[in-house]
């Protein structure tokens, strides 16, 4: 099977690059619906901010025999979620959008919930649920993008890998808890 794709000649590439120069990285070859991608990225940004805040609260509020190690894990996850938020905001700007950091409507834009949790097990479970939501959300956005925006796709794939690692870490923490605490008996 032969590849039917035809490469653009150099003079045409040069001429296109001079058109709409104010659009920065968004060239004529950008195949995605930019406004839809910006909306999706701002939803992901809100999700990361909510998750960062929840992890941060849990870091300070966790109590009990396992609290120190779990608090450290929560803080590490919080910092990684902040890093994801920064990457998403940077990509939004690259695409000519504005990252929405407004606290107003943050929970409505976020896919994840902000559940405080009372016990250590509650906190682990709520963070695990949020990670599972983020995993499915990122997978769907990646599928939506297809090959129309490979840069955003790669960014989301790298974030997805970390979210999967977080979910695995939390599942391990939950498994390490005494069964009576996990089952609520």
Protein topology:
Blueprint: H1 10-18, H2 34-61, H3 67-94, H4 106-109, H5 120-145, H6 150-176, H7 179-183
Helix pairs in contact: 2-3, 2-5, 3-6, 5-6
Keywords: Iron, Iron storage, Metal-binding
GO molecular function, one term: heme binding
Protein name: Bacterioferritin
Notes on the structure:
With 185 residues, the protein is mainly alpha-helical. It has a single domain, classed as Ferritin, CATH 1.20.1260. Helix content is 69%, strand content 0%. It has helices at 10-18, 34-61, 67-94, 106-109, 120-145, 150-176, 179-183. The longest helix has 28 residues, at 34-61. The protein is elongated and about 70 Å long. It starts with 9 loop residues before the first helix and ends with a helix. 29% of the residues are buried.
Brief digest:
By secondary structure, the protein is mainly alpha-helical.
List keywords for this structure.
185 residues; Ferritin; iron storage; Ferritin-like
At CATH level 2, the architecture is Up-down Bundle
Helix content percent band: 55-70%
The CATH class label is Mainly Alpha
Structural class: mainly alpha
Using the CA coordinates, give the radius of gyration: 20 Å
Mind describing the biggest β-sheet?
none
Q: Give the topology string: H per helix, E per strand.
A: HHHHHHH
Name the CATH superfamily assignment: Ferritin, core subunit, four-helix bundle
Count of helix runs? 7
Tell me the span between the first and last alpha carbons. Answer: 62 Å
Strand percentage, roughly?
under 5%
Large-scale geometry: elongated
The number of strands is 0
Number of domains: 1
Which regions contain 5 or more consecutive residues with pLDDT less than 50?
none
Q: What name is given to the CATH topology?
A: Ferritin
The overall pLDDT average reads 91
């Amino acid at each position: 099977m032969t590849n039917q794709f035809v490469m653009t000649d150099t003079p045409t590439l040069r001429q296109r690059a001079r058109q709409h120069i104010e659009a920065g990285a968004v060239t004529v070859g950008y195949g995605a619906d930019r406004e839809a991608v910006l909306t999706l990225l701002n939803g992901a940004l809100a999700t990361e901010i909510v998750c960062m805040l929840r992890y941060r609260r849990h870091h300070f509020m966790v109590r009990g025999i396992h609290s120190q190690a779990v608090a450290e894990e929560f803080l590490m996850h919080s910092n990684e979620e902040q890093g994801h938020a920064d990457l998403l905001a940077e990509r939004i700007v690259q695409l000519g959008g504005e990252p929405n950091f407004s606290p107003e409507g943050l929970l409505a834009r976020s896919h994840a919930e902000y559940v405080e949790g009372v016990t250590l097990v509650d906190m682990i479970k709520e963070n695990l649920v949020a990670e599972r939501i983020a995993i499915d959300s990122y997978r769907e956005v990646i599928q939506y993008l297809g090959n129309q925006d490979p840069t955003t796709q790669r960014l989301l794939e790298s974030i997805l890998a970390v979210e999967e690692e977080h979910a695995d870490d939390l599942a391990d923490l939950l498994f390490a808890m005494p069964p009576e605490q996990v089952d609520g008996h």
